[in-house]
């Protein structure tokens, strides 16, 4: 009888630990995705650039992006050509970043961006 009770208690304890571990893993979920925007040259007017940045920020936030870094000027470029600006936004996961990337706002901003700035944009997966 004692052996049977010990087995039941052990089974319940193992089930509880497994359930807790499963919840922790699910809570970690998918890794965040970061949008890294590096501007090397501004070719638009200051007014057009400011309006673009305002619309880009609103669209990013609408789709769940949160700015981590958003510079108005660079302190230092440690390697390579001088940079003008850097913006880094965090999205909860690749699905959220894809919604932003495929949104009408993002497509409109891409067309504007080509006329206003030169630089690089990348979506990169972060760590949980």
Give structural notes.
There is one protein chain. The protein is an alpha+beta fold and 128 residues long. It folds into 2 domains: 1-29; 33-125, 2-Layer Sandwich (Alpha-Beta Plaits), CATH 3.30.70.100. Helices cover 51% and strands 24% of the residues. The chain has 4 helices and 4 strands. The protein has helices spanning 2-28, 46-62, 94-101, 104-116, and strands at residues 33-42, 66-70, 85-91, 117-125. The chain has a 4-stranded antiparallel beta sheet with strand order 2-3-1-4. α2 runs antiparallel to α4.
Radius of gyration: 23 Å
How do the helices and strands follow one another from N- to C-terminus?
A: HEHEEHHE
- CATH C-level category of the largest domain: Alpha Beta
Q: What is the CATH T-level topology of the largest domain?
A: Alpha-Beta Plaits
- Which stretches of 5+ consecutive residues score pLDDT under 50? 4-26
In round numbers, the mean pLDDT is 81
The overall strand count is 4
Please state the overall shape, judged from the principal axes of the Cα atoms. globular
Q: How many structural domains are formed by the residues?
A: 2
CATH architecture of the largest domain: 2-Layer Sandwich
């Amino acid at each position: 009888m004692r052996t049977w009770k010990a087995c039941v208690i052990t089974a319940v304890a193992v089930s509880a630990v497994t359930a807790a571990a499963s919840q922790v893993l699910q809570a970690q979920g998918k890794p965040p995705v970061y949008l890294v925007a590096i501007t090397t040259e501004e070719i638009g007017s200051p007014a057009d650039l400011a309006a673009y940045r305002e619309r880009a920020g609103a669209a990013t936030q609408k789709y769940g992006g949160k700015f981590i870094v958003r510079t108005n000027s660079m302190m230092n470029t440690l390697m390579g050509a001088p940079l003008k600006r850097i913006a880094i936004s965090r999205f909860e996961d690749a699905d959220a970043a894809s919604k932003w990337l495929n949104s009408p706002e993002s497509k409109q901003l891409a067309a504007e961006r080509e006329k206003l700035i030169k630089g690089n944009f990348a979506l990169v997966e972060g760590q949980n």
